[in-house]
Amino acid sequence: MKWQGRRKSGNLEDRRGMSGKGKLAAGGGLIAVVVVLLQLFGGDTGQTLAPILEQVTQSQSVSEGGEQRELTEKEKELGAFMNAVIVDTEDIWSEIFRENNLGAYKEPTVVLFTDAVRSGCGTASAASGPFYCPADQKVYMDLSFFDQLRTRFGAKGGDFAIAYVTAHEIGHHIQTILGTSQKVRQLQQQTNQAGANKLSVAQELQADFYAGVWAHHNRDYLEEGDIDEALSAANAVGDDAIQRRTQGSVQPDSFTHGTSEQRKYWFMKGYKTGDIKQGDTFSEIMN
Ligand SMILES: [Zn+2]
User: Fold this and answer.
1) In which band, very low, low, confident or very high, does the pLDDT at 265 lie, cut at 50, 70 and 90?
2) What torsion do the CA atoms of 112, 114, 116, 119 make, to the nearest 10 degrees?
3) Measured in angstroms, how far is the CA atom of residue 168 from the centroid of ligand 1?
4) What's the average model confidence in pLDDT over 101-121?
5) By the 8 A CB rule, do 241 and 187 touch?
6) For the chain, what is the mean pLDDT?
7) Cα torsion at 65, 70, 71, 72 (round to 10°)?
8) First CA to last CA distance, the chain
9) Using one digit for the tens of pLDDT, what is the confidence trace for 146-184?
10) CA of 60 to the centre of ligand 1 (A)
11) How does pLDDT run across 8-33, given as a tens digit for each residue?
12) Gyration radius of the chain over CA positions
């Protein structure tokens, strides 16, 4: 993605390189595995995860605002890239909201962190992957996740994988400010586990769709290979791909994010149409 020369966003909170006393160390290993399975990029399941995370953090504190080490050149560059992605989402979603008479777009904050972070949804370790917290309307990104995406999940990597995941999390913000997330939570309370999982899949696929819609409107800045990087990331984090890798078999009833095929399909549908009205994943998934 061409990302040089953007204005500076007022919504980027860079907490990288801050020291913390306890880094969710002892006893965190097992819990961290659970969190990865539940939340791998991204639920806006921050709220339901909070009780699990509380267990981890009760006896350990994460201090923010301690000493800050100097960021490396690579980290600084990644920060500048993230700034460009955030600015582009701000400009594009403001425009889409205007065009669709959805009122003023309320920009989310994006927090960059290393190791662990305190959010409005509880304390999270980097193992939870990128997530959106509806309670404070912030996206939390630990950028080391993208090294794992490449080395452990076999994705291509590349800058646009990061852009896609960020846009997916911002998709959850869109769902929150449009009231979709609240409706999903209500419906989930009235159904069984399999029904709740299906609703979660529809919500996640719609976030992928919104990421595609953003990419469509950002296409002047795209470079060759960018869409492939996004699709490769989407492919790597499909529920079927994750289950095959972690448990050797696939149980569709337990899917919460959708298959690799579904994730690629909805991202591409958003990318091709650029039209938020085409993103009714719910009627497709629930029927
Ligand atoms: Zn998500």
Assistant:
1) very high
2) -10
3) 6
4) 94
5) no
6) 85
7) -160
8) 37
9) 988 888 888 998 999 999 999 999 999 999 999 999 999
10) 27
11) 999 999 999 887 543 443 333 334 43
12) 18
Backbone angles phi, psi at 132, to 5 degrees: -115, 135
Residue whose token pair is 């006893």:
27
CA of 236 to the centre of ligand 1 (A): 14
Tokens encoding 158: 């590349």
Rounded to the nearest angstrom, the distance between the alpha carbon of 69 and the centre of ligand 1 is: 31
Distance 41 CA to ligand 1 centre (A): 6
> 196-200, 243-247, 256-260: which has the minimum mean pLDDT?
243-247
Structure-token pair, residue 143 = 């950028």
CA of 182 to the centre of ligand 1 (A): 15
Q: How far is the CA of 66 from the centre of ligand 1 (A)?
A: 30
Q: Reading across the β-sheet that carries 109-112, which strands appear in turn?
A: 12-14, 109-112, 138-141, 131-133
Which region among 50-64, 71-85, 246-260 has the lowest average model confidence (pLDDT)? Answer: 50-64
CA of 89 to the centre of ligand 1 (A): 16
Distance 42 CA to ligand 1 centre (A): 3
**Would you state the structure tokens that stand for residue 104, as one six-digit string?**
């003023």
Could you tell me the distance, in angstroms and rounded to a whole number, from the CA of residue 67 to the centre of ligand 1?
A: 32
